[in-house]
Amino acid sequence: MKCILIWALLCSHTILYADAQVLHLHHIGSEGVAGLPEFMGSWSVDDRTILQYDSNTMHMDADAPIPDWLSSNEGPSHWRRMNFVSRMIRRFLVTTLNTIGQHDNLTASPPQARLYQTHGYCQLNPDGTMHTSVSHGYNGKDFVTFDIPARTWAAAVPQAVHLVKCRANRAFDLENLYYYYNYECIERLKTILKYAPWIHDKKVPEVGVIESRGLRIPSKVEVTCHVTGFYPRAVQVEWLGTEGLPLVDGVSSGEVLPNGDGSYQLRKSLTLPQGAQYTQHYSCLVLHSSVAGNITVNWVPKTRSSYWRASILTVIGCLLFLTLLVCCRREEEQSERPPL
């Protein structure tokens, strides 16, 4: 039964984490924000940044240096196209901020600072299918979205209706946006995957099980499965009971958090039910694309006698410490007394 379950989990893991590749384009245009460049942009595959620039440090123009990973015969042509797209996005942001600014000036209290954020991505699935999305934000809130198949903008808030009406009349821009995310974005993604093989690097997770007892309620036992050092981000962690079935009751999971080296970590805890702390065995099962099968770490409960021994040793240790402390204090008092 346990083998069948693990096989089923592996199958679902293969479906969920079959390494679909995603190219993200993030850009920000700003007005009136002290210390912030007027334009910032980044390209990333999954969560690895491959290109980053802003209007203060790196201008995306004809003289912009080619990244090392594009140093091939075909590299310059790909770079020119990426460069061109970035410049077009910058012009788009300038125009958009001007349009919003003119409209805001007609309101009672126009904002002193403006931030316009764009996020678009294209996803290439292992079966060859694609998924694309474009969404924009204004001053940290959802603003508009672009329906790529329909070639139409939709306002997320009433404030964005004016902008949507302005964009609806620009048929050429609508066609360009449709073409880019339906065709060119995928080609850029394939180019990046071809010339930047380090994107495919994977890191195997390290797995450990930590046991802790409540200070106020010593009988409350919690075991935590700490999974760290893995890449890519997608991971599946399950607590299995004695029968090898995934547990739901008493299980709590944290978020996947980044480590400083580009890898990730995750903690998943299990609070043991009363009566099972000395008899039941549990396992932490980890599924990750860097491992062909799975990583399983078992937690074996300690016997009651071992807990009693640990408690007795702790008490003895405390008594010895107090005795030593009293002896040291007496010696200090005797040394401080004046001679007779």
Automatic annotation (TrEMBL):
<keyword id="KW-0472">Membrane</keyword>
<dbReference type="InterPro" id="IPR003597">
    <property type="entry name" value="Ig_C1-set"/>
</dbReference>
<feature type="domain" description="Ig-like">
    <location>
        <begin position="205"/>
        <end position="296"/>
    </location>
</feature>
<dbReference type="GO" id="GO:0006955">
    <property type="term" value="P:immune response"/>
</dbReference>
<dbReference type="InterPro" id="IPR007110">
    <property type="entry name" value="Ig-like_dom"/>
</dbReference>
<keyword id="KW-0812">Transmembrane</keyword>
<dbReference type="InterPro" id="IPR050208">
    <property type="entry name" value="MHC_class-I_related"/>
</dbReference>
<dbReference type="InterPro" id="IPR037055">
    <property type="entry name" value="MHC_I-like_Ag-recog_sf"/>
</dbReference>
<keyword id="KW-0732">Signal</keyword>
<dbReference type="InterPro" id="IPR013783">
    <property type="entry name" value="Ig-like_fold"/>
</dbReference>
<dbReference type="InterPro" id="IPR011161">
    <property type="entry name" value="MHC_I-like_Ag-recog"/>
</dbReference>
<keyword id="KW-1133">Transmembrane helix</keyword>
<feature type="transmembrane region" description="Helical">
    <location>
        <begin position="307"/>
        <end position="328"/>
    </location>
</feature>
<keyword id="KW-0325">Glycoprotein</keyword>
<dbReference type="InterPro" id="IPR011162">
    <property type="entry name" value="MHC_I/II-like_Ag-recog"/>
</dbReference>
<dbReference type="GO" id="GO:0005615">
    <property type="term" value="C:extracellular space"/>
</dbReference>
<dbReference type="Pfam" id="PF00129">
    <property type="entry name" value="MHC_I"/>
</dbReference>
<dbReference type="Pfam" id="PF07654">
    <property type="entry name" value="C1-set"/>
</dbReference>
<dbReference type="InterPro" id="IPR036179">
    <property type="entry name" value="Ig-like_dom_sf"/>
</dbReference>
<protein>
    <recommendedName>
        <fullName>Ig-like domain-containing protein</fullName>
    </recommendedName>
</protein>
<dbReference type="GO" id="GO:0009897">
    <property type="term" value="C:external side of plasma membrane"/>
</dbReference>
<feature type="signal peptide">
    <location>
        <begin position="1"/>
        <end position="20"/>
    </location>
</feature>
